[in-house]
From TrEMBL:
Stated name of the protein: Endonuclease/Exonuclease/phosphatase family protein
Transmembrane segments: none
Keyword list, A-Z: Endonuclease, Hydrolase, Nuclease, Signal
GO MF term list: endonuclease activity
InterPro entries named among the record's database cross-references: Endo/exonu/phosph_ase_sf
UniProt keyword Signal, yes or no: yes
Species this protein is from: Lyophyllum shimeji (Hon-shimeji)
Leader sequence segment: 1-24
Length: 324
């Protein structure tokens, strides 16, 4: 199913989109490993330190925390974003800002995209009570941001547009997650009405689709009512009551044909040993608006564990193929 692609978008926390045939795109979301031990070496120095690719590693021997630059990705600090941009190369572009100052401080939720997808517009907003300035929701563990982008691509000579919202909800505050989901739903419906084209949301929700912490998932999928959000934001992205009144987001894992949903269920595994499943959960999601204009072709949660025992992240990358 996941065959060679001719074109693509990557988003981060990480997310990627790739256009591969007449009308298909690959979107990837990946919460990178946090860069807790920055070593300030170049991408080339990192590549130079890698094992000879023809040499067998010592299987499952490495368990210590390692330097990002030596092998992996994680929650994207500016250094990682710059490294990724270098590794993706000139055929790719990216957008994003650091969530702490709206410039470069703190984690990014960037979107990387291949250049045959053209960026039409972008903006950033905070999932807080003051969405248009860097700000933290009361009780949240961190400042939380959303990267919003409107793209255009050409499919068999026909222009196709779509919106993508990439985000990372709070790990501590369920109230923040419910607020964030409510804001994302308002913004997604606005874009669906404004553009009449597909809307996708990707992100680490830091909460599963079932159980006591499933408020954000239930709100975004229309199974629970949204909570009150900042009035300035609500006014800016208001639509008329009769415009897509039943708008909600559909979980692309459930939309894809079953035979094309492969590999793993959990998207978070923690940094535990391979036999310890106690923290495993599906918390990284990709949604499509029910105004449609897309078809989900397949989804795959891959692995972050390599043969030598290194975990590239405490999350797994999630790949979704969609046609637009
Ligand atoms: C499964 O994925 C492949 C490749 O993306 C696609 O061509 C095919 O139509 C999908 N299968 C179904 C049943 O949709
Ligand atoms: C990282 O390395 C660059 C180039 O050697 C140097 O200019 C910069 O000061 C270093 N930054 C830190 C935080 O050590
Ligand atoms: C809503 O957000 C705007 C922009 O961030 C802010 O100026 C305003 O004070 C907020 N409203 C309330 C009631 O907090
Ligand atoms: C795509 O967006 C551009 C810029 O807003 C607009 O001019 C164009 O008509 C749109 N095309 C479609 C097919 O929606
Ligand atoms: C995983 O394997 C290790 C080593 O055999 C063992 O000590 C540990 O108890 C196991 N953990 C679980 C959760 O089974």
């Amino acid at each position: 199913m996941f065959t060679e692609l001719s074109n693509a978008v990557i988003l981060l926390q990480i997310l990627a989109i790739a256009v591969h045939s007449a009308a298909a795109m690959r979107i990837v979301t990946y919460n990178l490993r946090f860069d807790s031990q920055p070593d300030n070496i170049t991408v080339q120095e990192s590549l130079n330190s890698l094992l000879d690719p023809l040499q067998q590693p010592a299987f499952l021997t490495l368990t210590k925390e390692d330097y990002h630059s030596e092998w992996g990705f994680q929650e994207a600090l500016v250094r990682q974003v710059n490294d990724l941009a270098e590794l993706f190369g000139p055929e790719w572009s990216w957008i994003g800002v650091g969530r702490d100052d709206g410039v470069a401080a703190g984690e990014f939720s960037p979107i990387f995209f291949k250049n045959d997808v053209k960026l039409i517009s972008k903006d950033f907003f905070w999932l807080s009570n003051t969405p248009f300035e860097p700000s933290k929701f009361p009780g949240a563990g961190s400042i939380r941001i959303c990267t919003a982008a409107f793209f255009s691509t050409s499919v068999g000579g026909t222009q196709k547009n779509f919106t993508l919202l990439n985000t990372h909800l709070d790990d501590q505050s369920d109230a923040q997650r419910r607020l964030g989901a409510s804001m994302l739903l308002v913004r997604a419906r606005f874009e669906a009405v404004r553009t009449g084209t597909p809307v996708f949301i990707t992100g680490d929700f830091n909460s599963p689709s079932t159980g006591p912490d499933s408020g954000a998932y239930n709100i975004i999928t229309g199974a629970a009512p949204p909570v009150a959000i900042n009035a300035t934001f609500a006014d800016k992205y208001a639509v008329k009551p009769d415009q897509l009144p039943d708008f909600k987001m559909l979980d692309l894992r459930g939309q894809a044909p079953r035979r094309n949903v492969s590999a793993n269920f959990a998207t978070f595994t923690g940094f535990s040993a391979p036999n310890d499943t106690s923290s495993w959960a599906r918390i990284d999601f990709m949604f499509g608006g029910n105004n449609k204009g897309w078809t989900a072709e397949g989804q795959k949660a891959a692995t972050s564990l390599s043969d030598d025992g290194v975990l590239a992240s405490d999350h797994r990358p999630v790949f979704t193929d969609v046609s637009i």
